[in-house]
Amino acid sequence: MDDRHTAGAGRNHFSAFPLDCKGYHVPRGEESRTLWPRPLAQKWTVMLFLGTCLLFCARMAMPICAVSMAASFHWSKIDSGLVLGGFFWGYCFTQILGGHASDKVGGERVLFLSAASWSLITAVTPLLAHLGSNTLALMTFARFLMGLTQGVFFPSLASLCSHRVLEGERGFLMSAINSGANLGTLMAGGMGSLLLEGYGWESMFYCIGLLAGLWALVVWLCLLKGVEVTQKQKDFKDPQWSLSRKRWLSLFRKAPVWAMMFAHMCLCSSMYTLLSWLPTYFKESFPHATGWVYNVVPWAVAIPSALAGGYFSDFLINRGYGVSLVRKIMQFFAMGVSNMFIIFLSGDVSFPSAVTLISAAIGLSTFSSGGVTVNVQDLTPSCAGALFGFMNMMGAFMGLVFVSVSGYLIEVTLSWAKVFSLITMVNVTGLGVFLVFGDARRVDLQDCSPLVQI
Predict the structure, then answer these.
(1) CA 196, CA 437: separation in Å to the nearest integer?
(2) Cβ count near 16 (within 10 Å)
(3) Which of 14, 72, 167, 195 lies 20 to 30 Å (CA to CA) from residue 325?
(4) Where does the record say this protein resides (predicted)?
């Protein structure tokens, strides 16, 4: 099958209306796919960027408000860990389901329903907190629902891009959306610092819920209402999409596959732990420090760092370095060099030093976008989406475990050094496995050659 496309292929087949989702068809022997016209693709790119930004704002609302809520409801660190970890329980369950539903009804519809749901959950969180006496259970349930509704986002986005965007234009869309994630975390920190001091923790949830609801409303009115999305479902009898148990077992026997998955799980567990507990760490370790500094600076650093990492990765490959070597170099920066900065946090550091160390660690961790994160496309391009969904599900589960374990360690040992040591150990282990067993050569051809179309 000839899968080669150019960025301009099929553009002459546009409808004259910029919001016509009927798009155009790309022939060349493959299944007809309905693609966005360029004006519509640009509008969706902007909206998905904003949607990802708001998604991470909503996701970070609870970690940022955790200290204030713990003081209000008399939570221990273990209690806070249970609430924060509730998100990952829900997030684990809908990874694969989100991609499948998007293939059936269209990624646009799934993303809209997802955003409408988690915006509502965010807005009513303060009401739930004051609804009954068992606030801990209600907040854990609210976070579970948040994870459940947000879990479909990135798998749906992957399905959406594969159906609506030309191959030559997917890179820009994905990089823009990843930048939205960092910007959302940054915005949540900035908004949280201002709203917590002036209006209380409830205002954080109300504000983000309102903005996300407005985003969903704009998407519906401007991009979806009155437009019939007719996306042809993939034929799952097609060998390219056949994911039998035999094939899964065959792939999991490949050392590069499980090395990639293990490294991804380790990275997710360490990053989710940092995301969940950093606001509490700074609040308790430096109670008189300005909140917006530690809630904003690390994520402001992460945005240019992510772009620089992507450019560096492509630069090395274009200069003739092997893809496998480049993946390992990028992962070494993401989990090895960044670890060196985390180690210093275990000692006695000043507030400026702590912010600098955290910013450097988080900034370098974004280099994983040129490492493990895209390694799945090197190893198994014929089923990269399904395998990435499985990886992300396992990463979310490990995040759940480590967020809860970290809360237990802080409560029992009264030491943040234990948490940073745990993160360091996990990163070193995951990086070591990937450096030894990782690779970038295709492994879905051997023993599965009838399942792959060329």
Answers:
(1) 47
(2) 6
(3) 167
(4) Cytoplasmic vesicle, Secretory vesicle, Chromaffin granule membrane; Lysosome membrane
> What is d(CA 408, CA 393) in angstroms, rounded to the nearest whole number?
23
Percentages of the chain per state (helix, strand, coil), in multiples of 5 = 80, 0, 20
The pair of structure tokens assigned to 437 is 């067993």
- Domains with residue ranges and CATH for the chain: 32-234 (1.20.1250.20), 235-446 (1.20.1250.20)
Contact of 303 with 182, CB cutoff 8 Å:
yes
CA geometry: angle 428, 309, 355, nearest 5 deg = 65
User: How far is 366 from 412, CA to CA, in rounded Å?
Assistant: 32
- Measured CA to CA, the distance from residue 295 to residue 290 in angstroms comes to 9
Q: Which tokens sit at 116?
A: 């409408």
Count of H helices and E strands in the chain?
17, 2
DSSP E strands, 74-193: none
Burial of 89 per CB tally in 10 Å (0-12, 13-18, 19+): middle
Its pTM stands at 0.70
The angle formed by the CA atoms of residues 169, 173 and 176, to the nearest 5 degrees, is: 140
Length of the chain: 454
Contacts of residues 111-114 at CB distance under 8 Å and 24 or more positions apart, as own/partner, are 111/48, 111/51, 111/152, 111/153, 111/156, 111/157, 111/160, 111/219, 112/216, 112/219, 112/220, 112/224, 114/149, 114/150, 114/152, 114/153, 114/156
* C-alpha distances out from residue 174 to 178, 247, 275, 369, 378, Å: 6, 28, 22, 11, 17
- Rounded CA-CA distance 313/269 in Å is 24
Per-residue pLDDT of the chain (454 residues; tens, 9 = 90+): 333 333 343 433 333 333 333 333 343 444 344 677 878 878 888 898 899 999 999 998 998 888 889 888 988 888 888 888 888 788 888 887 776 677 667 778 888 999 999 999 999 999 998 887 788 999 999 999 999 999 888 777 766 766 676 644 554 566 667 778 888 888 887 788 788 888 889 999 999 999 999 999 999 988 887 666 544 444 444 444 445 566 667 788 889 999 999 999 999 899 888 887 888 888 888 888 877 788 778 888 888 887 788 778 878 887 888 889 988 998 999 999 999 999 998 888 899 999 999 999 998 988 887 788 878 777 876 666 667 778 888 888 888 788 888 888 888 888 888 899 999 999 999 999 999 999 988 887 654 433 333 2
Of 342, 247, 246, which is closest to residue 298 (Cα–Cα)?
A: 342
Separation of alpha carbons 262 and 256, rounded Å: 10
Identity at 421, one-letter amino acid code: S
Write out the two tokens for 423. Answer: 């993160």
CB 283 within 8 A of CB 67: yes
